[in-house]
Amino acid sequence: MTEEKPTPPETPAPKPATEGAVPAAAPKPAPPAAPPKPVGPKPTDASGKPLIAALALAVPGAVLEASEFVGETTVKVAPEHLVEVCRHLKEKEGFTYLVDLTAVDWKDRPLRFDVLLLLHSFSRGQERLRLKVGVAESGTCPTVTGVWETANWMEREAFDMYGVRFDGHPDLRRILTWDGFQGHPLRKDFPIEGIDTGAAIYPDRYPEGGGPGPKDTNRKVLS
Questions:
Q1: Nearest residue to 154 (alpha-carbon basis) of 106, 103, 104, 112
Q2: Please, where in the chain does CATH 3.30.460.80 lie?
Q3: Which pLDDT tens digit goes with each residue over 144-160?
Q4: How far is it, in rounded angstroms, from Cα 117 to Cα 87?
């Protein structure tokens, strides 16, 4: 007798869609590609500007490079010619006002610091000019206190905050911190969390004046 094979169940036919049912939403189209980012301004060579050309002619070897960026002109100056350049710009070109003198720390660069001088001329239609001098960590920058007396405290601040020394400065000492303060707070390797500033006096470590005075209520003496 032949064994009958079981008949597989029939697959039910799909039921017709119920009237009034909401059809499945079509997939959303891909968002359009973002437009390319606009190209920002780039520095251009400014060595051909009349002011820079006249400066290079007046002080040979002083101008190492010059650039213009968003309307501002920056001149990189050889350190040994800085004082002569500043005197020429003040006396011959009308840049009588030293707005600021500061520094920038490029920690891993051989010339670690840029000393920056921002000059202003009222007689040239409020024109401004930036000078830049590269200084090694162990090097010095010539002082310009003989050109602008106001550079005195500006150079002291750059020394205090960055450790840049200014050769020929009449009174180069700290101005925002005190004698005995350890380090220079605006250097890139200064700890972000801060250091022991000497507010608690250690007589064997800090010289006289290296912290709050004897009558200061914040003074602490450690036993």
A1: 103
A2: 44-177
A3: 999 999 999 999 999 99
A4: 13
Euclidean distance between CA atoms 25 and 69, whole angstroms: 53
Assign 140 a pLDDT band (cuts: 50, 70, 90).
very high
What is the number of residues in the chain?
223
**Cα–Cα distance measured from residue 87 to residue 80, given in angstroms and rounded to the nearest whole number:** 13
What CATH number is given for 44-177 in this structure?
Answer: 3.30.460.80
Task: Name the residue type at position 129.
Answer: L
Per-residue HEC secondary structure of 156-191 comes to HHHHHHHCCEEECCCCCCCCCCCCCCCCCCCCCCCC
pTM for this model (two decimals): 0.74
Q: Can you say how many angstroms the Cα of residue 125 is from the centroid of all Cα atoms in its chain?
A: 28
For 77-116, write each residue's pLDDT tens digit.
999 999 999 999 999 999 999 999 999 999 999 999 999 9
